[in-house]
Amino acid sequence: MPKALSWPALAIVLVLTGCAAKPTPVAVATGEVTIDGEAVDGGIISFIDAATDQPAAGAAVAGGRYILYPESQLPPGDYRIEIRWSKSTGEKVKEPVYGHSPFVFAEVIPAKYNSESVLRVELVEGHNEVDFRLEK
Amino acid sequence: MALPAKAEPRPGFTLIELLVVIAIIAVLIGLLVPAVQKVREAANRMSCTNNLKQLGIAMHSYHDANQKFPANMQQVGTNRWECLSATYQILPYMELDNLFKSITIPSNVPPQGSAYNNGIGGNGGNWSTAYGNAMNASIKTLVCPSSTPAPRRSTNNRGWDGPGSNYGWCSGSRASSMWDGAFNTDGTTRSSNTNGVISQLKQSRMAEISDGTSNTILGGEFLSGSNASATGGPGKYPFDIFYAGDGLFAAIVNKSNPTMAELDAIGSAAKNSPQGVVTANGSLPLWYAASQSSFNTAAPPNWKWPSAGGNCCPGGAHDWGNGIIPPRSLHSGGVNFVMADGSVKFIRDSVDLLTFQNLGSVSDGQALSNY
How many domains does chain B have? Predict the structure, then answer.
């Protein structure tokens, strides 16, 4: 390289390096959720930080599968899991408003998997495949 | 022998000089143009805070005259959804008395805060007159200059389109949009479950704001729909409202304070919604529906997920009962709010979730951290 060009080239290299922020590590998780073999459809899975006990991220369970997206920005670590499924009972709310009556919902997952849950997972950076096969 | 005459230098400039001048001008333009854009956005933001200030003062004038805030529901037509918003009630205090008087409230509808279902005959004309005229009138104070235009009348395939509405009232921190209350023993009126200053089902008083009026959100900004096809999308984040299913809302444990995990679940379901999308939101300031004249503080401002509804209403533009309608704006980094004391505040997107939910609630009793 001619000497006249080498100084600007060196300057560009110096300016550009160190500009990109190091991305914070993010855990992504997918898996199956069933209760007594039945696929959970329309439930919520919450990842609760085991150290602080604060809900850190969550995902919807549809058709027996959940996907915790990278948008949730969940750092890798140790998490307690709570799973809830408010399932339609088939009954409808009595008073229709707006010409439309919504269904009545009831929780079908026992407390040992949500408010008193002891389910724990350790998530690593990148993709995690964790299945939850629950029993009533 | 005579020497050849020396060539006289011709007046003018060389190509190099011309290029240098052009380069200097280009650099100056490059410096100036972004500055002009920034000044324009700063002016828009100032105009937006001014709009919110006007709305806050009008709301206070209404409270002075009536000792109550208005309810975000005043039936005008035959059907239960043919109702006007709290914004309609404050029109006389916004120097829009002519618009206010152009709407006739029939004598047989209930007072603001309740509505009868399909029971009142003969009021269809009152509704259609209001819908075609006053509700389609463009009101400058209700449109933020930084925002994108709303779906104009007769352009959205589900209707409920109109002149544009970027400001609404805070219904509190519950993930509910409409009709959040149980029937009273009379079978027609409902008690209100919402915890914000403006409720659909009751008129609250300033004295009820026990957290302090300067610590409670009265109103704020949201964005208008993209007018994309409403039948199953493709909707456009962050402008449209996507359906996530009622079950996820039913699973929220503490209804007044949904957790980040519960919000994530609803938001990610809304993002992948197979159930459809609403794109005629933020269009009708005088209609009582959430996202037209009200929002909630369940999720933080400019929420990273799409605004979410439950499972309703085919053909309609609002959700039946469940909804996360977060405040949104195109100002960088946050959203403008008018507090219940009439002051205007810019709240950043990065505000702590619980702090923001407490800002929306009138009587949570919690101390606020800095925001």
Answer: 1
